[in-house]
Amino acid sequence: MYRKFLKSKLHRIRVTGCELYYEGSLTLDPALMEAAGLAPLEAVWVYNLTNGARFETYVIRGEPGSGEVILNGAAARLGQVGDEIIVVAYAWVPEEALADFRARLVYVDENNRIREVKEARPS
Q1: Which sites are catalytic (predicted)?
Q2: Which residues are paired to 71 by β-bridges?
Q3: What pTM does this model have?
Q4: Given 3-state DSSP classes, what are the helix, strand and coil percentages for the chain, each rounded to the nearest 5?
């Protein structure tokens, strides 16, 4: 049996841009993606702490070292520059792999610079 667990979390990152007339997605600084273990085009859920919006999209690489977090396409209507959001990805994990499974939790400063990366396990 498989169970769904949190795989990655970018906690309280700040929106730095909104691009309505874009294909759609969430642009992230590659440092944030790497720290959270997110791949380009991977599905993520976005929880906007500022306005309560919740939506699913996918991530694309932004400019390295920029700290950028850009809501693109329809998602641009669900947030504004300065909003604090949580970005998460989930994984289906087989029961027999739970002992080795670890989620990555990434915490940032007010400029989306990585402050701390933690691992969590389901236990």
Answers
A1: 25 (schiff-base intermediate with substrate), 58 (proton donor)
A2: 18, 26
A3: 0.95
A4: 15, 50, 35
pLDDT 10s digits, 40-81? 999 999 999 999 999 999 999 999 999 999 999 999 999 999
Domains located in the chain, CATH noted: 2-110 (2.40.40.20)
Residue from 47, 58, 90, 107 carrying the catalytic annotation: 58
C-alpha dihedral (22, 24, 29, 30), degrees to nearest 10: -120
**Is 16 assigned a ligand-binding role in the annotation?**
no
Q: Does 25 qualify as catalytic in the annotation?
A: yes
Taking alpha carbons only, the member of 108, 78, 83, 109 closest to residue 9 is 108
User: Tokens standing for 72?
Assistant: 């693109």
Residues 6+ apart with CB under 8 A from 76: 18, 19, 20, 22
Tally the residues of the chain: 123
Q: Does the annotation flag 31 for ligand binding?
A: no
Told to judge if 22 belongs to the known catalytic residues of this protein, a careful annotator would answer no
Q: Is 74 annotated as a binding residue?
A: yes
